[in-house]
Amino acid sequence: MYDELQKVRTLRLLSRVPLLISCAWVPTAHGEQEYLAPTVIEASDVFFPTAGPPVAAISLLATIESDGHVSETQTIDSVGSTLSGEPYQGTLVGYVEDSIAAIKQWRFSPAIDLTFKRTRSVASITFVYARVFDIVTDTTIIPAIKTVSTKASEYLPPLARKVSRVEYPIRGYISTARPTVVLKLRIEADGFISGLDVVRSVPALDDRCAQTVRNFQFQPARYEGKTSRSTTTVAFVFLPP
Length: 241
What we know:
mainly beta; two-stranded antiparallel sheet; globular
């Protein structure tokens, strides 16, 4: 019942973006086309909930208006993992709320239509939260994240299917209390990650996050019933000991 309700809510969100059909596509070096989707251009640190599992992942869709602000959000899935790597059975209190609050403060570059004007569209963002302990743990597995489908005539951005935590440098010095690394990824039509840009940097964590995210699995973007090249955003949020 919950899954069906999520699908209905997602379809309603996507149906409120009537300009998607006319958004621009550009040819790539391989003769494919890339959807000029909204992309994050400036991000800030994310609050970390006070209680919850050692590791959690939140998958969101956000409607980005032509001026770059977020007008609506939809939660695709939220999952957590225990220290032993088992699925977290409790309630993820505050994770979705903090994720939504964060992206509403971020700046996005909107989608581009066929006349190369800014237009409304949908972006996908995945948050990976990790509590850091003084002991070495083996929590590298996070339960698979659910994805959704949509009507053939509508655009659906790439969605994360499988994510993992980043090995945090316990003995390293990181000045911020809530280190947040935000990455923009280019996802090919087969789900392969072909490009990566650091939008928000924590120098001691950037390389670790970049290496980890390349092992993530994504459902590629879809438009008019076909998979396509597009972009998505991943944010790694840490709570140091």
